[in-house]
From TrEMBL:
<dbReference type="InterPro" id="IPR000515">
    <property type="entry name" value="MetI-like"/>
</dbReference>
<protein>
    <submittedName>
        <fullName>Thiamine/thiamine pyrophosphate ABC transporter permease ThiP</fullName>
    </submittedName>
</protein>
<keyword id="KW-0812">Transmembrane</keyword>
<feature type="transmembrane region" description="Helical">
    <location>
        <begin position="309"/>
        <end position="335"/>
    </location>
</feature>
<feature type="transmembrane region" description="Helical">
    <location>
        <begin position="180"/>
        <end position="202"/>
    </location>
</feature>
<dbReference type="GO" id="GO:0055085">
    <property type="term" value="P:transmembrane transport"/>
</dbReference>
<feature type="transmembrane region" description="Helical">
    <location>
        <begin position="347"/>
        <end position="369"/>
    </location>
</feature>
<feature type="transmembrane region" description="Helical">
    <location>
        <begin position="121"/>
        <end position="144"/>
    </location>
</feature>
<feature type="transmembrane region" description="Helical">
    <location>
        <begin position="375"/>
        <end position="397"/>
    </location>
</feature>
<feature type="transmembrane region" description="Helical">
    <location>
        <begin position="484"/>
        <end position="502"/>
    </location>
</feature>
<keyword id="KW-1003">Cell membrane</keyword>
<feature type="transmembrane region" description="Helical">
    <location>
        <begin position="89"/>
        <end position="109"/>
    </location>
</feature>
<keyword id="KW-1133">Transmembrane helix</keyword>
<comment type="similarity">
    <text>Belongs to the binding-protein-dependent transport system permease family.</text>
</comment>
<keyword id="KW-0813">Transport</keyword>
<feature type="transmembrane region" description="Helical">
    <location>
        <begin position="228"/>
        <end position="259"/>
    </location>
</feature>
<dbReference type="InterPro" id="IPR035906">
    <property type="entry name" value="MetI-like_sf"/>
</dbReference>
C-alpha cells in the first residue's frame, strides 16, 4: 500500500523562515567581527570571557556537588513524609522566571533581608547562589531519573551479595548515571554561561559581567555595535564548542524528566544512612524554601494593580500567545515530516536546536545591526521580541509534538490516505481532536517561557513597551523594591497557573 506523503511545502517554508532569521542575526555579526580581526579581542572582551567561564564552571561544580547527593538521598529514601512535596518543590525554580527568584534571594540575603550582612549579594557570590538555586533541582531531577531506571534485579542482587554503600555506588549507581551526569553538567554549564537576568541584576558592576550582559551593555548603554559583534562572535564560538562536545558525549541531558515509579531498594536502611540523607534533604530545603517564603510573605502586601502593571500584564500575555503561536506554526510542518522520514527527522532536530546554538544576545546583535543600518527599530520591537521568544521555544514545542504526532501517524495514516484527507482537513478532522492536549501543552510551555523572558525585552524594549519582567527590573533600578516584589508575585501567580495547567495536561496525555 502506498504510504501517506504529506506536502513538503509548509516544512520548506518553515525552514526558509528559520534560515532567514538566523542569517539576519549571524551574518552581520560575522561581517563586523571579521572587519575588526584579532584587534577586536581586546583585554575587556577577554576579561568578560574569563569571567563567563569562571562563573559557569563554579556554578556547575556547586550545582552537581549538592544535586548528586540530593538525588541519591531521594533514591535511597523512597517513602519518607513529604517526599512527594519535595519533588514538586524541585519543579519550582525552573518554572519561575529568573527575575522573580532573584527578588526572593535579595529579600533573604540582601542588605535588608532576613540574613542581611551575611555576605555581599552582589558580585560573583550572588551569581553563584542564584545559579545554584536554579540548577541544583535540575541536576537532582536528571540524576534521580537515571537512578530510577536501574533495574530492580540490580538492587535485589546487591542485597543478596551484601554490598557495602561504597560498592553499590561503584558497581550499580555510578555506571547508571555516568553518561547522564556528563550531559547534565554540559546543560548546566550552557545555562550558566548564557545567563542574563541573574548577572544583570546581581553582577554588581563591570567586574562581574558575562558575554550576554556585555552584549546588552554594548548595544543599549554604550551604543557600540562593533564591540557587541565581537562579543557575540566569542559567545557563538563558545556555544558551538559546547554543542560539539555535547554531541561527542552523546548529547545534552534530555530535559525535565517525568516522575517514575520508584524501584524497591534495600540499602539506606541504617540509622547513619537515614541521618546523612536527611541532612542533605534539609540542606536543599534551606536553599530553596527561604527565598520562596520571603517572596510570598513580602509580596502579598505590596501588590498594586496600577495602570502600568495592568498594561505590562496585557503586553506579556499578548507577546506570549503570539510567540507560542509562531513557534507552533514553525514546528508543526517540520514535525509532520520528521515522524515519517529519517532524513527530515535530522533536519528538524538541527533546525529547532539552531536557535540555542546561536544564543539570544548574539542573534539580537545581528538583528540590531541590520535594522539600525536600514531604518531603525521603531515600531518593530514587538515583532522582534515575539520572534526571539518563538525561536527559544522551538525545542520545547518540538519535544511535546513529536511523540504525539508519531502516535497519530501510526494510528491514522492509512485511514486518511484511503479517505483522501490531507493538509488542513486532516488537521481539523483528525489530528486536532486526538492531539488537542498535546497541542495545548506545547503552546502553554512556549507561553510560560515567553512570560519569564527578560533578554529580548531588555534588548528591544522601549520606555512605553514593557512586560512584567521588564517592569520588575525597572522598579528595582528605581529603588522601588516593594513595588517590584508585588509585581513579582503577580508574575509568579500567572506562571504557576499556566504551569499547573501544563502539568495536568501532561499527566492526562
Amino acid at each position: 500500500m502506498i504510504a501517506y506523503q504529506p506536502s513538503r511545502v509548509p516544512a520548506v517554508a518553515a525552514l526558509a523562515l528559520l534560515a532567514l532569521a538566523l542569517a539576519a542575526g549571524f551574518l552581520p555579526v560575522l561581517r563586523m567581527g571579521l572587519e575588526q580581526g584579532l584587534s577586536g579581542l581586546d583585554p575587556y572582551v577577554l576579561r568578560v570571557l574569563r569571567f563567563t567561564l569562571l562563573q559557569a564552571g563554579l556554578s556547575t561544580i556547586l550545582s552537581l556537588a549538592l544535586g548528586l547527593p540530593l538525588a541519591r538521598a531521594l533514591a535511597r529514601q523512597s517513602s519518607f513524609p513529604g517526599r512527594a512535596v519535595l519533588l514538586r518543590l524541585l519543579n519550582l525554580p525552573l518554572a519561575l522566571p529568573a527575575i522573580v527568584v532573584i527578588i526572593g534571594i535579595i529579600e533573604v540575603y540582601g542588605a535588608r533581608g532576613w540574613l542581611g550582612g551575611l555576605f555581599d549579594i552582589y558580585g560573583l557570590q550572588g551569581i553563584l547562589l542564584a545559579h545554584v538555586f536554579f540548577n541544583v533541582p535540575l541536576a537532582a531531577r536528571l540524576i534521580l531519573a537515571d537512578l530510577e531506571r536501574i533495574p530492580p534485579e540490580s538492587w535485589k542482587l546487591s542485597a543478596q551479595l551484601g554490598l557495602s554503600p561504597l560498592a553499590i555506588w561503584r558497581l550499580v549507581e555510578w555506571p547508571a548515571i555516568r553518561s547522564g551526569l556528563a550531559g547534565a553538567a554540559l546543560l548546566i554549564f550552557l545555562l550558566c554561561a548564557s545567563s542574563f537576568a541573574v548577572v544583570l541584576t546581581l553582577g554588581g558592576g563591570p567586574r562581574a559581567t558575562t558575554l550576554e550582559v556585555a552584549i546588552y551593555q554594548s548595544l543599549r548603554a554604550d551604543f557600540d555595535p562593533p564591540r557587541a559583534a565581537m562579543l557575540a562572535l566569542v559567545q557563538l564560538a563558545l556555544c558551538a564548542t559546547l554543542a560539539l562536545v555535547a554531541q561527542a558525549w552523546g548529547g545534552l541531558a534530555a530535559g525535565w524528566p517525568a516522575l517514575r515509579l520508584q524501584p524497591r531498594r534495600f540499602d539506606g536502611r541504617t540509622a547513619l544512612s537515614r541521618l546523612l540523607d536527611g541532612g542533605v534533604v534539609l540542606l536543599a530545603l534551606l536553599l530553596l524554601v527561604p527565598p520562596l517564603l520571603a517572596l510570598i510573605g513580602a509580596g502579598l502586601f505590596h501588590i498594586n494593580f496600577s495602570a502600568l502593571l495592568l498594561r505590562a500584564l496585557a503586553t506579556s500575555l499578548g507577546l506570549g500567545m503570539a510567540s507560542a503561536a509562531l513557534a507552533f506554526v514553525i514546528v508543526w510542518p517540520l514535525a509532520v515530516l520528521a515522524v515519517r522520514s529519517g532524513a527530515w527527522r535530522k533536519v528538524a532536530s538541527i533546525a529547532v536546536l539552531a536557535s540555542w546554538i546561536v544564543p539570544p544576545a548574539a542573534l539580537a546583535t545581528g538583528w540590531f545591526i541590520t535594522l539600525i543600518a536600514q531604518a531603525g527599530m521603531t515600531g518593530l520591537a514587538a515583532f522582534l521580541v515575539i520572534a526571539m521568544n518563538a525561536l527559544m521555544a522551538l525545542p520545547f514545542v518540538s519535544r511535546v509534538l513529536m511523540p504525539a504526532l508519531a502516535q497519530s501517524a501510526e494510528a491514522h495514516d492509512r485511514l486518511c490516505l484511503s479517505l483522501g484527507l490531507e493538509g488542513w482537513n486532516r488537521f481539523r478532522l483528525v489530528e486536532f481532536p486526538v492531539m488537542k492536549r498535546a497541542i495545548g501543552l506545547s503552546l502553554v510551555m512556549a507561553l510560560i517561557l515567553s512570560l519569564g523572558d527578560l533578554t529580548a525585552i531588555s534588548l528591544f524594549g522601549t520606555q512605553d513597551f514593557v512586560t512584567l519582567p521588564a517592569l520588575i527590573y525597572r522598579q528595582m533600578g528605581s529603588y522601588r523594591f516593594d513595588e517590584a516584589i508585588g509585581t513579582a508575585v503577580v508574575l509568579s501567580a500567572l506562571v504557576l497557573a499556566f504551569s499547573s495547567l501544563a502539568e495536568r495536561w501532561s499527566d492526562q496525555r
